[in-house]
TrEMBL record:
Phosphoprotein as UniProt keyword: no
Classification via PANTHER family: ALKANESULFONATE MONOOXYGENASE, ALKANESULFONATE MONOOXYGENASE-RELATED
Annotated function: Catalyzes the desulfonation of aliphatic sulfonates.
A GO biological-process term: alkanesulfonate catabolic process
EC main group: oxidoreductase
Catalytic activity: an alkanesulfonate + FMNH2 + O2 = an aldehyde + FMN + sulfite + H2O + 2 H(+)
Gene3D superfamilies named among the record's database cross-references: Luciferase-like domain
Record's signal peptide: none
Taxonomic lineage: Bacteria, Bacillati, Bacillota, Bacilli, Bacillales
UniProt name for this protein: Alkanesulfonate monooxygenase
Length: 386
């Protein structure tokens, strides 16, 4: 079991859909979140990708120099670069970080954004291109001399002179809910990722990808992407969930949903189906699984909500299905990283790092208690929204 946190390179704040309580997304804040995750014992952090985010590769390189154990799950977007360039970037960052790189393969989702980046392939074609891309990428990182003549990419005598620290390649994380996405994930991924759907739906995807991987002669691990809202009591947690969307109105939600509706991602469609009735509907779609975030946010739209024991129990339910990698986030990300680590980590069993006890005892007690008491402003500089 591994637990990763999230670097909010598209911005952060105390509420969704408003500038109220927002804070600037800059290197100082990213460093605060990354160093907190490093000290608290998170396995790593996910860096998002897209035109609304800072570049994940450059951000990871900057934050690797500011941390010691933390791993960086960095987005690789086939179609926006050549596989040989991606292999060199992967190897370089893995070497500079001393083996702390994880690769998150992203096939796309928003045709409008993809067109702006010069990628015009349709949904299933993109996964065909990903398949070819990763075939070359894997071969180069494994030290092979690659000759490949595909429909989408080609290589003649390709080779990588400087190998990565992690052999044969850094681990590949891959999300794709469509049949085409699952097929490519079964062939190439080390960890198949799903959005935070109810356990029964997650089980179906796990079993499907596991069977396809077996046909490829491979074994795949499984991960899930969720938000979390944990407080000392269930009542406090649900009140915090309500506050998070308290500034949303129908106009803001409708505008966000119109943008998300143009996505051709099967995973995004499945997320949208969880909250179609809007803010006033019952957004608890499964015990302690809340779909309120997806009202205005693309991608991960659900959160585990509850007290520490309840949240830990829900995590273990997913673990029983076969989920080993959990990628969490929470608003604001700095404070919530402390809450989650201090309240839930003691109830779970995973590799948290040799220094975790010390971080909980000294810095964890001092800063964590201040955060829970609402006094974090004394120690952390919050930036005004743009």
């Amino acid at each position: 079991m591994e637990i990763l946190w999230f670097i909010p390179t598209h911005g952060d704040g105390r509420y969704l859909g408003t500038d109220i309580g927002g804070r600037e997304a800059d290197h100082t804040y990213f460093k605060q979140v990354a160093q907190a995750a490093d000290r608290l014992g998170y396995t790593g952090v996910l860096l998002p990708t897209g035109k609304s985010c800072e570049d994940p590769w450059l951000t990871a390189a900057a934050l690797a120099a500011e941390t010691t154990r933390l791993k960086f799950l960095v987005a690789l977007r086939p179609g926006l670069m050549q596989p040989s360039v991606a292999a060199r970037m992967t190897s370089t960052l893995d070497r500079l970080s001393n083996g702390r790189v994880l690769i998150n393969v992203v096939a796309g989702g928003d045709p409008v954004e993809l067109a702006g980046d010069g990628l015009f392939l349709k949904h299933d074609e993109r996964y065909g291109a990903v398949d070819e891309f990763l075939t070359i990428w894997h071969g180069l990182l494994a030290g092979e001399k690659v000759d490949f003549d595909g429909k989408y990419v080609k290589s003649e005598g390709g080779e990588l002179l400087f190998p990565p620290v992690q052999q044969p390649t850094p681990p590949v994380y891959f999300g794709g809910s469509s049949p085409a996405g699952q097929q490519v994930a079964a062939k190439h991924s080390d960890v198949y990722l799903t959005w935070g759907e109810p356990p029964a739906q997650v089980r179906e995807k796990v079993e499907s990808v596991r069977q396809q991987a077996e046909k490829e002669g491979r074994k795949v691990r499984f991960g899930i992407r969720l938000h979390v809202i944990v407080r000392e009591t269930n009542a406090e947690a649900w009140a915090a969930a309500d506050r998070l969307i308290s500034h949303l109105d129908d106009e803001v939600i409708d505008k966000a949903q119109q943008t998300l509706s143009r996505y051709d991602s099967a995973g995004q469609s499945r997320m949208a189906a969880l909250h179609r009735q809007g803010k006033e509907a019952d957004l608890e779609i499964s015990p302690n699984l809340w779909a309120g975030i997806g009202l205005v946010r693309g991608g991960a739209g659900t959160a585990l909500v509850g007290d520490p024991e309840t949240v830990a129990a829900r995590i273990k339910e997913y673990q029983d299905i076969g989920i080993e990698s959990f990628i969490f986030s929470g608003y604001p990300h700095l404070e919530e990283s402390y809450r989650f680590a201090e309240l839930v980590f003691p109830l779970l069993s995973f590799g948290q790092g040799e220094d975790l006890g010390r971080s909980r005892g000294n810095i964890g007690e001092t800063i964590g208690n201040s955060i829970l008491a609402g006094e974090v402003k004394k120690r952390v500089v919050f930036h005004k929204p743009e």
